[in-house]
Inverse folding.
């Protein structure tokens, strides 16, 4: 989507080119090249200029970020979306379980991307689907999307720098310790396109922290909150199984459907700095009903439990 960003140049940035200034302001080199090749991208004190123009103190720079590519291969499909927050730069959705984030083989029209394409179908500027974080199909909870190329650049860097704070709620088999840290490498299972396994030789570093909040003695289930230091595919599901506490209802790692028909995993808390204002944004998503019924009296913290 098209946006305009306005900067008042400070003394510290005097004598630098527009391109250099933007590179230090969160723009990727790819985006700067795109702007350089797009007519009318830069207005300096009301006049059209080029990316090599040198900046002076108190200059006003207007950057017009326009889309050229689109996600027109994503079919718009009407669906109810739980919008937690939206402005011109970011969108936060509370995704239900059973919904893939991206289209794939066998899932062309029932994904979050299809619903977002419908949501923006009447926008004048092109629609591009940019999920900053991804959840498995059967994992519910908060998903962050970037609405324009600039916010995508800034939030992608935040992911790499581990400055986006995400916490999960899960229900696992057995009685867990009060807290713990799992540091075990994860790799793709030989012969499988989706399943992951522990592998000390081929695996990538994976670290998971958890804290226990309740235990259901009758069902022998624990309610825990988790924080990931790394974001490996299926990390929580593989790690909890590795320590003897798999998620019941997980078709890959613990197909025990006595209590629930999907892995009881929920992205419950999300915080990050706004890509433009720098303001800290915090969001929580309440437990879905299928998890709540297993712990009806749980006082699930709405805020973070890891600091």
């Amino acid at each position: 989507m098209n946006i305009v960003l306005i900067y008042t140049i400070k003394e510290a940035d005097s004598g630098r080119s527009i391109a250099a200034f933007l590179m230090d302001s969160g723009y990727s080199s790819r985006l700067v090249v795109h702007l350089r090749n797009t007519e009318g991208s830069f207005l300096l004190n009301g006049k059209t200029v080029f990316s090599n123009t040198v900046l002076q103190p108190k200059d006003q720079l207007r950057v017009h970020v326009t889309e050229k590519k689109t996600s027109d291969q994503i079919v718009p499909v009407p669906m109810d979306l739980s919008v937690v927050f939206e402005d011109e730069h970011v969108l936060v959705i509370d995704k239900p379980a059973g919904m893939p984030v991206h289209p794939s083989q066998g899932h062309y029209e029932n994904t979050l991307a299809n619903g977002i394409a419908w949501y923006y179908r009447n926008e004048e500027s092109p629609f591009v689907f940019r999920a900053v974080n991804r959840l498995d199909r059967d994992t519910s909870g908060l998903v962050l999307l970037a609405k324009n190329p600039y916010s995508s650049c800034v939030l992608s860097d935040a992911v790499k720098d581990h400055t986006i704070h995400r916490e999960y709620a899960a229900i696992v088999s057995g009685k867990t310790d009060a807290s713990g840290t799992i540091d075990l490498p994860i790799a793709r299972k030989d012969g499988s396109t989706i399943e992951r396994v522990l592998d000390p030789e081929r695996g990538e570093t994976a670290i998971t922290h958890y804290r226990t909040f309740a235990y259901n003695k009758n069902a022998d289930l624990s309610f825990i909150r988790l924080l990931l230091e790394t974001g490996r595919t299926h990390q929580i599901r593989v790690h909890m199984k590795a320590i003897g506490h798999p998620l019941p209802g997980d078709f890959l790692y613990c197909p025990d459907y006595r209590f629930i028909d999907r892995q009881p995993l929920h992205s419950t808390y999300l915080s990050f700095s706004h890509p433009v204002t720098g303001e800290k944004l915090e969001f929580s998503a309440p437990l879905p009903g299928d998890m709540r019924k297993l712990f009806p009296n749980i006082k699930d913290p709405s805020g973070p439990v890891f600091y």
